[in-house]
Design a protein that fits this description.
Helix content is 36%, strand content 20%. It is an alpha/beta fold and 259 residues long. Helix 9 packs across helix 10. The longest helix is centred in the C-terminal third of the chain and has 13 residues. Bound molecules: S-adenosylmethionine.
Length: 259
């Protein structure tokens, strides 16, 4: 079977790593797993043997045929759809508890999918395979080139539970770069998730520009309040978003929403 490069098909073939990944999903026996891109089922099959339920979304009909033959467990549901066209409400029922997201992500849309999961707090955790560069971006520090929207959004909403290095040789076809599998559990937050993620998006809308300029360019409504926060806290008005720690972003957000 030929892998479709344009669909980001790099299949996991290392059984050792597959076991490590599946065993790293917290509380799997009681979980409803939502998996994007099951492919030929390298993760899906062992997941469906351990989890309460697995719902997998796969765009490629060639994979659907293979999966339906390979996985016959009753707790397995397969949906042939583009994840970007799917509304979570189509698959998540109101009585579902302990929903966990798992994916060896198709790399051409990995950040889009991660945000789609981050925005919905019904997901208790997000366990994903990413290219190493993206793992580094998520855990980068202020003032580095890779510190940005992804770092602050994910860092605010999730704790890192586990990180497994996955060398390129564990996949077929072999990608050009190494990968990492990270297990993230959702933190409890006491503010509006959607509004916060929008604020962070606006804050990083212009690369290497000041926070105030980025917010102004994005027509962020509470611009004046952010400016007031900086003044009151004696923070330079030309501070760049890359210089601001995650905790400070949370403080600014809480301040502008109290006013
Ligand atoms: N889970 C398998 C594994 O670990 O071997 C395959 C992972 S492969 C990196 C990514 C999978 O995502 C492929 O099966 C691909 O067809 C699927 N995919 C790509 N784009 C998709 C999309 N927009 N919606 C749903 N699935 C997609």
């Amino acid at each position: 079977m030929l892998a479709k490069k344009y669909l980001g098909q790099n299949f996991l073939i290392d059984q050792n790593k597959i076991n490590l990944i599946v065993n790293s999903i917290p509380n799997i026996q009681n979980s409803i797993i939502i998996e994007v891109g099951p492919g030929t089922g390298a993760l899906t099959k062992p997941l469906s043997e351990k989890a309460k339920k697995v719902i997998a979304i796969e765009i490629d009909f060639d994979m659907i045929k293979i999966l339906n033959e390979k996985i016959t467990n009753k707790n397995f549901t397969l949906i042939n759809k583009d994840i970007l066209d799917l509304d979570w409400d189509e698959i998540i029922k109101s009585d579902y508890k302990n929903i966990q997201f798992v994916s060896n992500l198709p790399y051409y849309i990995s950040t889009k999918i991660m945000f789609k999961v981050a925005y919905d707090d019904r997901f208790n955790s997000m366990s994903v395979m990413l290219q190493k560069e993206l793992v580094d971006r998520i855990f980068s520090k202020t003032n580095s080139k890779s510190y940005g929207r992804l770092t602050v959004s994910i860092g605010t909403l999730f704790n890192l539970e586990k990180k497994i290095n996955i060398p390129a040789g564990c996949f077929k076809p072999q990608p050009k770069v190494d990968s990492g599998f990270i297990v993230l559990s959702r933190k409890k937050i006491d503010f509006d998730l959607e509004k916060y993620l929008f604020f962070i998006k606006c804050s990083f809308s212009m690369k290497r520009k000041t926070l105030l300029n980025s917010l102004k360019k994005s027509n962020f409504k509470k611009y004046e309040l952010v400016k007031k926060y900086l003044e009151e806290n004696k923070i330079k008005l030309n501070i760049r978003s890359e210089e601001i720690e995650i905790n400070e972003f949370i403080k600014i957000f809480k301040y502008i929403n109290k006013k």
